[in-house]
Each structure stands twice: as structure tokens, then as C-alpha cells.
Amino acid sequence: MNPDAILRMKRHNPHQNAVLGAMQLCEHAKIPYSILPEQSLTEELLGEYSLLLLPEVYVIEEKTCALLERFVEQGGILISSGQSGLWNRDSTRRSKSSIAHLLGTGKSVIHEEYAANRWSAYLKNTGKTSFHGLLSCTTPPVSEHFIETDCQEDAASLLEFLLPCVACDFDHWVNWWSPPPGQAFHHPALVRRPYGRGTSYYFAFDFFTMASLNSFQYPKELFADLLALSELAPAIRNRTEIPDILRTAYFETEDSYIVHQISMLAKQFHGNSSPVSGGLLEIPEPVTEARVVYPFPMELSAEQENGCSVIRLPDLSLQQIILVKKSLSKRR
Fold first, then answer.
1. Cβ neighbours of residue 63 under 8 Å, at least 6 residues apart?
2. Which own/partner pairs from 209-213 qualify as long-range (CB within 8 Å, at least 24 positions apart)?
3. Which of 24, 26, 123, 171 has its CA at 20 to 30 Å from residue 6's CA atom?
């Protein structure tokens, strides 16, 4: 999908904001993605993917639940967030998510009493794994509401909530941006559960919506941490040290990958631009040919590193298109 499509999504409802956030996180991580409408889901289709995101998908019905279970059971990675599965089609609330058994969660309560604070809680690392970004040194805030739930016995809480020291209302206020963290809430903010050969992750707040609204920057680092924890090996990936400047889109044919890179320097600096590094392409399979086809033809070489074909890309000023011929089909 062309990353410029992200910019064309207008007048978002809450779920659209979450979908946009998922798209932005995948683009920032420079991994290929596509959007799968619920009506299109089949076991065969899901078998082509290694990672599935549920960005605040409020209604998840029985047929979809069974497909998700099978996907994770066979080795897939599932990342869900917020009120996913907490609503019925008739807009009534469920006591727990329709995929709670898959996520490793229990009964759920939506907390909105801190919404006037602009955010509802703060995240604290439980010490079961390490994180980068703000989570490595402080307790960053989350969205305007959060979900109170518990972990099942075979699930683990990787992050938990801290509450603000006061809930702002007509009787209580503070003369700074938002109240600092208060007492520990001892309910999970991020749950990890092994299921069959796969793993599910659940954010008990609107993680993907936060990413799209760009209120805070840490979702990008947290998403990258989950990809690393999952040992995800996408079919193709653009490694770069400038993910906010370099946009990358991927297209696939039966025997090729087509990679389109765009530098955002001209947009960010109002027309002024200079060459930036195209980074590396990593493909976990042999390739037979790699070359730049636009703006100037150029042959590229692929080296083998840790079982991957690694292609060093040239610098680009505005955009370039790379063609990579593959020798094997691979799960996305």
C-alpha cells in the first residue's frame, strides 16, 4: 500500500483513527502491510501473514474469533488494543472481550473518570522485559480512557497502570499540564499470552489511536519493541536510521518486490532538500537480481547476512524505485 494513502484518510471516526495509527506504525517500522476487511478473512488468507493487528476492533463475532484462534494457534502473532471485542453488533457492552480467552484477559471495565486530565493513566514496566523510548526511563501517559482487566494464569503483565494523583473535575484541578503519577493500580496495561505456537499481545488502552493522533511519541518505540519480542521476520524490510524522513512502500508480484522510497525532507523544510541514505533492504530468502529502475538505472548487489539477503541502497534526493527479483515465495 502506498504510504501517501495514509494522508488521504479524512474525517476519522474512532476506529478509522486506530486503523490509521496501525498503518503509521507499520510504515515507521518499514514493514509491508495491507488492510484486511473482516468479510474477506479466511484461514487460507490469514495463513499468508505472520502478524495481525486489531486496532480497536469493537465488534468481533464468533466466526472471526475462530479464525483468530486458528491463526495464533498455528504460530501467528496477534496485537490487539483497547475495546476490541468488547461490544456486540447491537451496540450493547460485553462483560469481557469476545476473544478474552485468546488475549489472556478477564472481565473488563472501561475507566473514563480521568478523561478531563487529558490522559487517564501512566505506564510502568513490570520488569518482565526491557523496553526502549520513554518506557526505559519514565512512566509515559496513555489515552483518555483505559480498560481494567486481569491476566489469566498463563498470561503475563508486561506493563501495568499507575493512576494520576488526582482526577480533575469541577471540584479538583491542578495548575500544571496534567497530574503526575500516583498510586499503582496493579492491573495490566500490556498482556502477553502464548497460545498454541503463537503469541497474543493486548494493550488495555487505545494504543493505535494514540499513534494516529500523535499526542505522544512513544508508541513507535513500543511497537518496535513488540516486533523484536516476537522475533518477526517480514518478507522484506527497509532498515533505516531516519524512519521519519524516509517513506517506504512495498509492492509484490509473483516473482518480484518493487520498493518505492520517498524523502520527506522537501516537505518538512518547504522545498529544500539534500540526499539521504536509502538504508538497507533485508529479505529472508535468496534474491536473483536487484537494481534501481528510477530515477537512474543502477545494478545493486545482495550480500548474505544471518540467512538474509541484504541490499545496500543508494542515497536519494526525492524518490527512487528498486526492483528485486526473488527466487522463493515467502509469508508476509
1. none
2. 209/14, 209/17, 209/18, 209/21, 209/55, 209/56, 209/82, 209/143, 210/21, 210/142, 210/143, 211/21, 211/22, 211/24, 211/25, 212/12, 212/17, 212/18, 212/20, 212/21, 212/24, 213/17, 213/21
3. 123
DSSP 265: H
pLDDT in tens, 51-77: 999 999 999 999 999 999 999 999 999
Question: 163: how many CB neighbours lie within 10 A of its CB?
Answer: 21
The residue whose grid cell reads 512512566 is: 139
**Spatial distance between the Cα atoms of 264 and 182, rounded to a whole number of angstroms:** 40
Residue identified by cell 484461514 is 43
> What is the sign, positive or negative, of the torsion defined by CA atoms of 24, 35, 58, 42?
negative
Task: Establish whether the linkage from the previous residue to 295 is cis, with ω within 30° of 0.
Answer: yes
DSSP output for 101-147: HHHTB---EEE-TTGGGSS--EEEE-SSS---GGGGTS--B--S-EE
Is residue 289 over pLDDT 90? yes
pLDDT in tens, 245-275: 999 999 999 899 999 999 999 888 877 778 9
Rounded CA gap, 37 and 58, in Å? Answer: 14
Look at residue 332 and tell me whether its pLDDT is greater than 50.
no
**Is pLDDT of 320 > 70?**
yes
Please choose, from the candidates 223, 220, 253, the residue with its C-alpha nearest in 3D space to the C-alpha of residue 235: 253
Q: 3-class SS at 257?
A: strand
The answer to whether 234 and 285 have CB atoms below 8 angstroms apart is no
